């Protein structure tokens, strides 16, 4: 997986061992968006390194969660995998076929099996098309003629996602946010895909609706055996959906493992920080540590040398600035639990003696507040 090349110059093992069961295999994936300057010649003066060397795999029927703060490259990864974007480097193999540079016009067959659900159910549905047309269009474009006819099949799909099939002739603006996301799901299901890339599928929805849509996706995953790459910034959402989770920071995967490893025995300080910002991510863990991860992710135009998290990390030492830690199985980690850190945390989420506050300004504020509270 990673990202990184090991000291010997060899790539560490992929996140899911290549087993032949992998539906999706991503190696060394990069997307650098060029930054150009000049009116006439448009010289390239730099690049946004949105995705900077990812290795991961998704097995048939499994759900891999991809989490991290805003701007760390999750959406770009989803778009690279579905070939909505052209990679700068690396390889994407889907269902045994190398689709890395497959021309878009030749993507039709692969796209049948590789669908995407978008974050914003408002902008991802054409307001001028009826729900029926929206759900039927992928079938028509791909020359799929279901025995029961397009209309009946579209109505069946609406029913599967919990919508009234009688609403076939209605328009997207007649539906709520949650219902619109269900229309997006019905459209994605129309081609019976093997993999769905769900890019923050619930973050635009009311909290009360989010669980319903996540449950729907979970039912579909189980009943139809569809694999998911589930992208989210919230570890709480992914916990209930994904058997495995990859944590991303500034264009790289910093930790990956099964649910228990990530939520109960995380080793990377960034995973600890993300977990500690989610209330009750592990029920009953009242003594969970508290880490406040404040401040912004550094710019992907000029990421920190060595470990990219070091500028916000409480364990950083000199080595972290000079050597990029490879994503490897650390001593004490279980199978498939890989961490990219020189000074990993203990595999526990138990509370620390004191809070860790990562932002100096925030720390100063808290200290001032403490002093005024105690009258010191
Ligand atoms: N077309 C583009 N041109 C230039 N930079 C881009 C482009 N698309 C994304 N980026 C930059 O790449 C980085 C990663 O963006 P991306 O949307 O993949 O992150 P993300 O983790 O999905 O965040 P969010 O949850 O906010 O969407 C960001 O710094 C973003 O500004």
From TrEMBL:
Molecular function (Gene Ontology), one example: ATP binding
GO process terms (BP): peptide transport; transmembrane transport
Pfam families membership: ABC_tran, oligo_HPY
CDD domains: ABC_NikE_OppD_transporters
Domain (ABC transporter) ranges: 35-275
Signal peptide positions (record): none
Record carries keyword Aminoacyl-tRNA synthetase: no
Keywords, alphabetical: ATP-binding, Nucleotide-binding, Transport
Chain residue ranges for the region called Disordered: 1-21
Record flagged with keyword Nucleotide-binding: yes
Protein family according to the UniProt entry: Belongs to the ABC transporter superfamily.
Protein name: Dipeptide ABC transporter ATP-binding protein
